[in-house]
Amino acid sequence: MDTARLDLAALAVSGVRPGIADIPLENISTLAKGRLGDPSVIPLWFGEGDVPAPAFIGEAMIRAVRDGHVFYTHQNGIPELRAALADYHTRLGATPITSDRITVTTSGMHALMMTVLMTCGAGDNIVIVDPVWPNMGGTARVAGVEVRQARMDLTQGGWTLDLGKVAAAMDDKTRLVFFASPGNPTGAMIPMETQVELLAMCRARGVWLVADEVYHRMVFGRDAGPTLLDHADPEDRLIVTHSFSKSWAMTGWRIGWMVHPPSLGPTLAMITQYSNSGVATFIQHAGVAAVTEGEWFVEKMRAYCETGVGIACDALEALPRVRMGPRPRAGMYAFFEVDGMPDARAACVEILQKTNVGIAPGFFFGPGSESFFRICVCRSADSLSEAMGRLMTVFS
Ligand SMILES: Cc1ncc(COP(=O)(O)O)c(C=O)c1O
Q1: Residue 372, number of CB atoms within 10 A of its CB
Q2: With helix as H, strand as E and coil as C, how does 302-358 read?
Q3: pLDDT tens column, 332-385
Q4: Which of 7, 93, 118, 140 suits 101 as a labelling partner, its CA being 20 to 30 A distant?
């Protein structure tokens, strides 16, 4: 972990701009360092499963390369993919979405970077609803933007958001509020009434709202989760971010998209041009195949994660030392505390050594979560059961 800090400090000496060298690169990779790819480790630490993208997606990519789709391309994404994604949203939601509202990005991560670049400058701040996947905060810090947190509370009924906390964190320098629903690491869904109230709050202050709906298709027992797009005007300052990483198991392909007001298209094309100049054309063709032919796989991934949550929670709920709240009804994680283990970070290192199971400590997901652990449940039942058996030896 310290090695990453030292490397950055060394870079600073060689001319990295102020502020950058102080950002700790302390993520799951630093914890996993030295054990990545070790076959004796069951890796539950990253937000990805053990299932590769289905073959037809790879075949579509190869076909696209053979057909010569290997040149510079449209900055907002190829028209076929934008149209396919517009149809996809229109089919799943209650509001028709037009393709001028879609920009294809190099991942959900890059959609967030583009959003920050577009809305925030030095001296501005953003408010993040947490516990949450840490990259939104990291993105803002890299851009020189202050990060403020509004933490959800774990109650008897699950993780709940007090909008008063969001309001208290905002001031006249706040440019953006970010939340993910369903969430990572909690799997929690913020009720739609609360999301709509949050949108109204942001609207009143002229602040952007970013709704991360990367786990929108991983809501158990439903085809898709509710979406704030159904409760907003097209020109609201609302950006909804998506990814192919989870429901199509395409983590390594680096492709995602954002749904935005139609008027933002040219600005996003400009930012694309000056950041990565567009998403690899043949990967976009693979995206068309995924979104038009991959419903069976999306369903399979949802069922896989639901089974995984069941296996993990059956084991964890049997342990009196574990505190977790109700079972997640979405996503691919279990997030819990264990009595007598307040320092989850140190515990994760020890657990890795003792059990050869890799899990993630809560402090990655925001202040206040230092005593939590996150496990990714997107694994075969055999492998996950084996991992839970080993974890029970340290958590019971
Ligand atoms: C809430 C959330 N948003 C976005 C992403 C990013 O996905 P991508 O792989 O497309 O960058 C993740 C990945 O774990 C995530 O959990």
Answers
A1: 25
A2: HHHHHHHHHHHHHHHHCCCCEECCCCCCECCEEEEEECCCCCHHHHHHHHHHHHCEE
A3: 999 999 999 999 999 999 999 999 999 999 999 999 999 999 999 999 999 999
A4: 140
For 173-210, how does the pLDDT look when each residue is reduced to its tens digit (9 = 90+)? 999 999 999 999 999 999 999 999 999 999 999 999 99
Closest CA to 375 of 240, 196, 186: 186
The model's pTM: 0.94
Query: Residue 8 has what pLDDT?
Result: 52
Strands (E), the chain: 42-43, 102-105, 125-130, 146-151, 153-155, 158-160, 174-180, 208-212, 238-243, 256-259, 322-323, 333-338, 357-358, 360-361, 372-376
Which of 243, 254, 374, 377 should be mutated for ligand 1, with most atoms under 8 A from CB?
Answer: 243
Looking at residue 150, its pLDDT comes to 98
Cα–Cα distance, 303 to 219 (Å, whole number): 10
Q: How far is the CA of 318 from the centre of ligand 1 (A)?
A: 30
Residues with CB under 6 A from ligand 1: 47, 107-109, 133, 180, 184, 212, 214, 243, 245, 251, 256
pLDDT of residue 195: 98
Q: Check pLDDT > 90 for residue 1.
A: no
Antiparallel, parallel or unpaired: β 174-180 and 125-130: parallel
The pLDDT score that the predictor gives to residue 7 is 56
For residue 361, cis peptide bond before it (omega within 30 degrees of 0): no
Substitution candidate for ligand 1 out of 245, 283, 301, 374 with most atoms within 8 A of CB? 245
Exposed, middle or buried by CB within 10 Å (0-12, 13-18, 19+), for 2?
A: exposed
